[in-house]
Amino acid sequence: MTRPSAVPPPVTAVLDASSRWLPARMGAVEDVLRDQVGGQGEPLGADAAATLAAGGKRLRPMLVLLCAGEQGGDAALRAAAAIELVHMATLVHDDVLDQAPLRRGVPTVAATSGRARALATGDLLLSRAFALLAEAGDGRSVQLLADASVALARGELAQRHDAFDLSISERRYLDRCRLKTATLFECACLLGHDDEHLRRFGAEVGLAFQLLDDVLDVSGPPERTGKARGTDLLDGTVTLPLILAIGSDPGIAEVDLQGLDTESAAALCDRIAATGALEEVRARALAMVAAGKRELQSSGFAPEQQQLLALVADGVVQRYS
Amino acid sequence: MTRPSAVPPPVTAVLDASSRWLPARMGAVEDVLRDQVGGQGEPLGADAAATLAAGGKRLRPMLVLLCAGEQGGDAALRAAAAIELVHMATLVHDDVLDQAPLRRGVPTVAATSGRARALATGDLLLSRAFALLAEAGDGRSVQLLADASVALARGELAQRHDAFDLSISERRYLDRCRLKTATLFECACLLGHDDEHLRRFGAEVGLAFQLLDDVLDVSGPPERTGKARGTDLLDGTVTLPLILAIGSDPGIAEVDLQGLDTESAAALCDRIAATGALEEVRARALAMVAAGKRELQSSGFAPEQQQLLALVADGVVQRYS
After folding, report:
1. B43 with A143: Cβ contact below 8 A
2. Which of A28, A126, B12, B119 has its CA 20 to 30 A from that of A81?
């Protein structure tokens, strides 16, 4: 299992293109994050700092800062840090359930410190996000983030509710992806700047991100994704590649997901791929990214800001190309 | 295992003494809670509604309403509901770990719907609490509740960190109780009314509540507490009765908590009780309640309001007498 580099190429492209101001602002977000997870007493310090150090793409904070623009002040920094705290909280809580030994190539809190501490660490990261925004009296941001956080939990509940159900519709799948993933991207844009075009940009890019993630689960390769192919299938999570594959190969609907093991899950991945479903899902994701970019053009945003946001959107795609 | 009645006697006493206004206000809080947990999609509806219906004493919302007083408006109602949502979230998350089959006599979310849904339900209840306050633009309340929620998680982390460590000091135990329990009582009072005496009242009563809870874990009887004696000991949670007992019977410090089973835990409870530690902890809790009531007298609050709050404080003690 390879350890992803701390800053993946697409993000680097955005940072390069905005070297005048964005890298310094992203550094300031890291400082806020370190402040927030530090100074909470030794046990948390270690666990949360490890989660923080494990990195990640920081896509959501970057969207906040880019939408706020070069002149965005401390409010944008705080919002950028707060949205990453919420995202980190969901990752730590996911690990409570999955008992995944590694995330982003480093041991998870659940693996290092046990489920109990991982659960409390997630609760703490989530609470800290709201405390950070509330301290600054930023009511609008609290509301946006609280609503997004509600959506995340609802998406998770929907996913668990639909688990192992091969009859769920494409529409239900998309609704779940909006709740689970797109809403937080949308929220990132709105935290940066209150604009309907930016909101739609975030929603499209976020949805594309989830679709492409679901393609990767089927396509692998594990050396690049850091997890076995078919992990979603083993969890009973029915995703768009599977839904579309059933359309062309109805026999797939007879598979008992609950009876899968690693080997038969990989075989099912091959069967899904053979239907051409992965190409279709990729194409749909690209169409979403394109729609998102069109929203930018309608936004009246400064060309440089549009260009940087478009680079983020491209980055989401490139990671999976 | 007996199922506690929905409204325990001490709470009834407060409602009786304030029949002119409090029962109607508490009913309005239930309406807000039902609104908040309903309408979130079917899967949540069922789980969260079950948690809600399982009742509980609603001590924290009652403190909010009493501190806000008869003229407290919608802000007090929302704050009362929000603090109960946070409290419910912690209970649902506790059940993720403990895999307790029952809480308050009814099946837990974790038992009914599995750990994954319980985890997401807890996240949702917590997020909803902040969304509820943020919608109304109540920044001060968001801040108070977020800080309290951070403290809860820190208390939980401290407890897990200290688990099975018989050398922890009384001071460390009290610090943990403040984080885990007293802060939310304190927060309830401050949400109702910004007053330093009320804050201290809440802190004293909350700390007493935790001390008496820890006495009950040792004393039982299980028919009244709804759980086996020594549940904390089996979890490795070192509480004040145990710490004081070691002072008079140092041999207890040699016990290997990790090797306890239900039977040896009950025997250890007897050994702790034999030292007189339970009486001492009870006496300290009563002293805290008395100190809390003195704060009320210094508060300059209307006598009726003082009297009602004193009844809540007495209720905390009576439940355990």
Report:
1. no
2. B119
